[in-house]
Amino acid sequence: MLKAILETERGTMTIEFFEADAPLTVKNFTDLAKRGFYDGLLFHRVLPNFVVQAGCPDGTGAGGPGYSIPCELTGENQYHDRGVLSMAHRGLNTGGSQFFICHSRDQTSHLDRKHTCFGRVTEGLEVIDAIRQGDRIEKISIIEA
Question: What predicted TM-score, i.e. pTM, was given to this entire model?
Fold first, then answer.
């Protein structure tokens, strides 16, 4: 089982991945994290009671890793609940490095099976609420348990 420790200015979150549901998305995210791609990047989009979004190398929401990955939308965990990590994209099969973490189910259920859910925050949920636009990811560490 893969896990991640996502350290931010506002606190630390522990993430468990949905490897069975979204193996390509999990591999993409963990490979980028292992390379240090996310370290120092901004949370460039923060919408209260919706999502916090990061993963854009230029901080504008328009950047990515230089390639796209396919969406994985058919697994059992493809529901945007509080604390779920999901791949941001500009349309089907255009995700790359940008991801968001859901504040609540109230405003995110319409994203189900449209964006790939690939993990869940299991510790540090309160950090999601504390993050402000412009805060940074300090480091994402991948742990193979």
Answer: 0.97
